[in-house]
């Protein structure tokens, strides 16, 4: 790994956009904000750059990447859209939705980025900085979340710097992201499948489809045969153990609360953070990864997390928390 590489940090703006596009064109690695989390971008057509990207993240090479494009025309040169995929793209792009689709015949995305699958994951991000960089670069940009593999996803440029300084070329700092959890991933096969809950709720997608989303096969979560390959059980793990659905606090635990209700024995907590005092799931999603990182630094015995409703964005929040609780 290229530790010892100088990682430049630039504030978002016209100069940073031009620099980022140039670095991508030369096969470099650029972290930039999207509306969901910060991504680590590389030229989707450059296998050497993508190999460096896997290496910089310490990511298993079988875990494929999302191609980020600026418009539907570019998306349709990469993937084959059926009617349902088109409807979802028109309803939700740009935005926090990724579609997994069959590859187009002369798909410009390198095999390495799709891990040898005959499908490709694709999205149009809504963040202005991300779109400006993709447009200036002029091609598709593959971008996983800009964290070390297995770590909590980054929602600020400081998080990216903490994980990847010395391993990547450039970080474009556009401030904290808005959504805070990754995009929702839908596989558009004969019946659309929810491969990863995320920043766009199941209910919104099902309303446009006019049918329920299917679940992926159960064995999707084994490390050996990932169906939604990134859905490894051990993703998103802080070092500190995570205890879910806590109704009270044990001495020496950190408390991650949600909503206005008082938690039993909360005076035992070494530190308390509340994802959303007023019980707002969007606010909780935006705070989730940053708070996990902060609490992880406090050397608590465990992070006790109070229950979060499994509705709307709560589905994605609970998914990430369950993965954090599995540990590594
Ligand atoms: O919000 C997001 O989606 C962020 C921002 C940067 O766009 N990106 C992101 O990328 O979360 P990453 O690499 O951390 O997660 C991508 C997920 C992985 O779980 C991967 O396995 C899955 O997408 N994926 C990629 N290509 C796939 C494919 N052809 N079939 C099934 N799953 C795929
Ligand atoms: Mg990730």
Automatic annotation (TrEMBL):
SUPFAM superfamilies in the cross-refs: YrdC/RibB (SSF55821)
Top-rank taxon, per record: Bacteria
Enzyme class: transferase
GO molecular function terms attached to this record: L-threonylcarbamoyladenylate synthase
Residue ranges of every copy of the YrdC-like domain listed in the record: 14-200
Keywords: ATP-binding, Cytoplasm, Nucleotide-binding, Nucleotidyltransferase, Transferase, tRNA processing
EC number: 2.7.7.87
Catalytic activity: L-threonine + hydrogencarbonate + ATP = L-threonylcarbamoyladenylate + diphosphate + H2O
Methyltransferase listed as a keyword: no
UniProt-listed InterPro entries: DHBP_synth_RibB-like_a/b_dom, Sua5-like_dom, Sua5/YwlC_C, Sua5_C, T(6)A37_SUA5, TC-AMP_synthase_SUA5
Subcellular location(s) of the protein: Cytoplasm
Family to which this protein belongs: Belongs to the SUA5 family.
Role noted for this protein: Required for the formation of a threonylcarbamoyl group on adenosine at position 37 (t(6)A37) in tRNAs that read codons beginning with adenine.
NCBIfam families the record matches: L-threonylcarbamoyladenylate synthase
Protein name: Threonylcarbamoyl-AMP synthase
Originating species: Bradyrhizobium elkanii
């Amino acid at each position: 790994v290229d530790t010892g590489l100088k990682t430049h940090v630039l504030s978002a703006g016209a100069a940073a956009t031009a620099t980022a596009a140039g670095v991508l064109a030369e096969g470099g690695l650029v972290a930039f904000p999207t509306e969901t989390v910060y991504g680590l971008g590389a030229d989707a057509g450059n296998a050497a750059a993508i190999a460096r990207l896997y290496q910089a993240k310490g990511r298993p090479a079988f875990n494929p990447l999302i191609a980020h494009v600026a418009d539907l025309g570019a998306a349709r040169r990469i993937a084959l859209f059926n009617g349902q995929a088109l409807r979802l793209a028109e309803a939700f792009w740009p935005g926090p939705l990724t579609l997994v689709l069959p590859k187009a015949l002369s798909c410009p995305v390198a095999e390495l980025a799709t891990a040898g699958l005959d499908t490709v994951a694709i999205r149009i991000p809504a963040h202005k900085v991300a779109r400006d960089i993709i447009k200036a670069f002029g091609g598709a940009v593959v971008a996983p979340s800009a964290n070390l593999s297995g770590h909590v996803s980054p929602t600020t440029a400081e998080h990216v710097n903490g994980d990847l300084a010395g391993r990547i070329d450039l970080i474009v700092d556009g401030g904290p992201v808005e959504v805070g959890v990754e995009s929702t991933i839908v596989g558009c096969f004969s019946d659309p499948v929810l491969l990863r809950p995320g920043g766009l709720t199941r209910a919104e997608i099902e309303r446009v489809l006019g049918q329920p989303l299917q679940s992926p096969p159960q064995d999707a979560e084994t490390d050996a045969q990932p169906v939604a390959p990134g859905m490894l059980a051990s993703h998103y793990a802080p070092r500190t153990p995570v205890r879910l659905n806590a109704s009270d606090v044990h001495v020496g635990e950190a408390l991650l609360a949600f909503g206005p209700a008082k938690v039993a024995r909360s005076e035992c907590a070494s530190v308390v953070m509340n994802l959303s005092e007023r019980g707002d799931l969007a606010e909780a999603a935006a705070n989730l990864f940053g708070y996990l990182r902060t609490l992880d630094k406090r050397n608590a015995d465990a992070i006790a997390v109070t229950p979060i409703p499994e509705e709307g964005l709560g589905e994605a929040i609970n998914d990430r928390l369950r993965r954090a609780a599995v540990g590594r």
